[in-house]
């Protein structure tokens, strides 16, 4: 091992795994574009206040997971720990409210969270994120849910199902929180310290506590989806109606909560078999209060985020067939100073003709040909002394069991082109 190692919780995505990444990104892109989502790319860092406000003080992310620092100009900066706050900032800042609704945006890129690293949990990882802004109808919720579903389906994930909840809105949630808090006070002796604290900072979050001792209390807790106001109830019923119609399986899960005021109505996860038992592979929901909270006009919105590393773990685990990345079809071997100049010219001519080509950079002809074999291209072009004398190139065609032919130098590009065309036709 050398002197330097990668920072804890980060990964080197080596060439050997890139085909998974390319395939995943291509799938995400294809599905998102098919749905009419437009790509948006945002800074990897934003001012810290955007996240403390937009993600919320009483969340794990803001409480303990942000990479925050002061830059040389004294600005408080944070590496993005999620996409939504940045997307909303950009929506407001770029005046996207004037665009026809819905505004449908997607992003893919690195995310940073200071977490304890373990399998599938990193400090720098990647998310795919999609948001529909400007529409309060449940069709928007459905749209992001279907997109998430179709991406996992396209990747051949098994056992897909939604988990679904509604956490109401600022009209109906306060009454529910009172009921919930009253219930929890009756069970104060049975719950963990974190939940006792959450009851004052972020009461809904008690419902997704993982502590064993809290589980029976959660199981008996009043359910928010049974106490929705008429508007939230209508929304939830309509969304479920669409899912029923499409025969998309979902389970009502009253433990699914986001907990902050600007998260409204729908909360969902996609579950899949993955590695072992069925588990969440992405999460999302509606956040009708967020745009206004961040200084924009009141704008309903809904979205979701999915972690790419975990998807790739599943793809590798279930051996999803992923095509090899294309390699240049031509490899040029050469010997001697004069031949190397001819070889370079041929290399450039091939590339100019749109044919992928590589050139040997060192070694004997024999070792160059071994390299050609390993690089997996189709044609090895050889320019040695004999070829130089005759103004020819020796061509070995791997597709023909390395059969060998001599071609006049000036005809080689057209010769290769004709054969490659035949393959692609
Ligand atoms: P978890 O409960 O695993 O911490 P989360 O609720 O923090 O997940 P979200 O904030 O909803 O997750 O992020 C969406 C997705 O991002 C997750 O479903 C997961 O696939 C992925 N993800 C979250 N944190 C990490 C991480 N540290 N490393 C890799 N992927 C992550
Ligand atoms: Mg987390």
Attribute tags:
binds magnesium ion; Rossmann fold; five-stranded mixed beta sheet; 2 domains; 425 residues; eight-stranded mixed beta sheet; alpha+beta; 16 strands; 21% strand; binds adenosine-5'-triphosphate; BirA Bifunctional Protein, domain 2
Any overview of this molecule?
The protein is built from 15 helices and 16 strands. The chain starts with 17 loop residues before the first helix and ends with a helix. The protein has an eight-stranded mixed sheet with strand order 1-5-6-11-10-9-7-8. The model has no long low-confidence stretch (mean pLDDT 94). The protein folds into two domains: 15-172 and 228-317, BirA Bifunctional Protein, domain 2; 330-419, Anticodon-binding domain (Rossmann fold, 3-Layer(aba) Sandwich), CATH 3.40.50.800. The protein is of the alpha+beta class and 425 residues long. The structure holds adenosine-5'-triphosphate (ATP) and magnesium ion (MG). Adenosine-5'-triphosphate binds at residues 82, 113, 115, 120-122, 125, 127, 280, 282-283, 305-307, 309-310.
CATH second-level architecture of the largest domain: 2-Layer Sandwich
Residue fraction in strands: 15-25%
Distance between the termini: 48 Å
Could you give the count of β-strands? 16
Q: Overall pLDDT, averaged?
A: 94
Describe the protein's topology:
Elements: H1 18-34, E1 38-39, E2 45-47, H2 48-54, H3 60-65, E3 67-70, E4 76-79, H4 84-93, E5 103-112, E6 124-133, H5 138-154, E7 161-166, H6 173-186, H7 193-201, H8 215-219, H9 230-245, E8 250-252, E9 264-272, E10 279-286, H10 290-293, E11 301-307, H11 308-317, E12 330-334, H12 337-352, E13 357-359, H13 365-375, E14 379-383, H14 385-390, E15 392-397, E16 403-408, H15 412-424
Parallel strand pairs: 1-5, 7-8, 12-13, 12-14
Antiparallel strand pairs: 2-4, 3-4, 5-6, 6-11, 7-9, 9-10, 10-11, 14-15, 15-16
Helix pairs in contact: 1-5, 5-9
The protein binds adenosine-5'-triphosphate and magnesium ion.
């Amino acid at each position: 091992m050398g002197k330097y190692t990668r920072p804890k919780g980060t990964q080197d995505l080596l060439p050997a795994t890139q085909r998974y990444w390319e395939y995943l990104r291509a799938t995400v892109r294809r599905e998102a574009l098919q749905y009419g989502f437009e790509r948006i790319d945002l800074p990897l860092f934003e001012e810290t206040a955007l996240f403390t406000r937009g993600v919320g003080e009483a969340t794990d992310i803001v409480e303990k997971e942000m990479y925050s620092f002061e830059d040389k100009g004294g600005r408080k900066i944070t590496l993005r720990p999620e996409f939504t706050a940045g997307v909303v900032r950009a929506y407001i800042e770029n005046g996207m409210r004037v665009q026809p609704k819905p505004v449908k945006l997607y992003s893919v890129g690195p995310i940073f969270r200071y977490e304890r690293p373990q399998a599938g949990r990193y400090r720098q990882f990647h998310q795919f994120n999609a948001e529909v802004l400007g529409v309060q109808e449940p069709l928007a919720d459905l749209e992001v849910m279907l997109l998430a579903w179709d991406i996992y389906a396209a990747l051949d994930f098994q056992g897909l199902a939604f988990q679904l909840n509604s956490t109401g809105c600022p009209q109906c949630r306060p009454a529910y929180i009172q009921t919930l808090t009253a219930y929890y006070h009756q069970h104060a002796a049975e719950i963990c310290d974190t939940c006792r604290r959450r009851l004052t900072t972020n009461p809904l979050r008690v419902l997704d506590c993982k502590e064993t001792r809290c589980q029976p209390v959660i199981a008996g807790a009043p359910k928010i989806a049974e106490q929705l106001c008429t508007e939230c109830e209508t929304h939830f019923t309509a969304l479920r109606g669409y899912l029923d119609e499409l025969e998309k399986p979902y389970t009502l899960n009253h433990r699914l909560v986001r907990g902050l005021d600007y998260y409204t109505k729908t909360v969902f996860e996609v579950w899949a078999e993955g590695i072992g038992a069925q588990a969440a592979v992405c999460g999302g929901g509606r956040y009708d209060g967020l745009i206004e909270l961040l200084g924009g006009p009141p704008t309903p919105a809904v979205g979701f985020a999915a972690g790419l590393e975990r998807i790739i773990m599943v793809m590798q685990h279930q051996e999803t067939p992923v095509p090899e990345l294309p390699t240049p079809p031509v490899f040029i071997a050469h010997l001697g100073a004069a031949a190397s100049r001819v070889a370079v010219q041929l290399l450039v001519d091939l590339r100019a003709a749109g044919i992928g080509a590589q050139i040997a950079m060192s070694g004997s002809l024999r070792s160059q040909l071994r390299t050609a074999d390993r690089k997996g291209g189709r044609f090895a072009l050889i320019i040695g002394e004999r070829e130089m004398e005759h103004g020819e190139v020796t061509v070995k065609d791997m597709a023909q069991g390395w059969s060998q032919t001599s071609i006049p130098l000036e005809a080689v590009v057209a010769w290769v082109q004709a054969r490659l065309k035949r393959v692609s036709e």
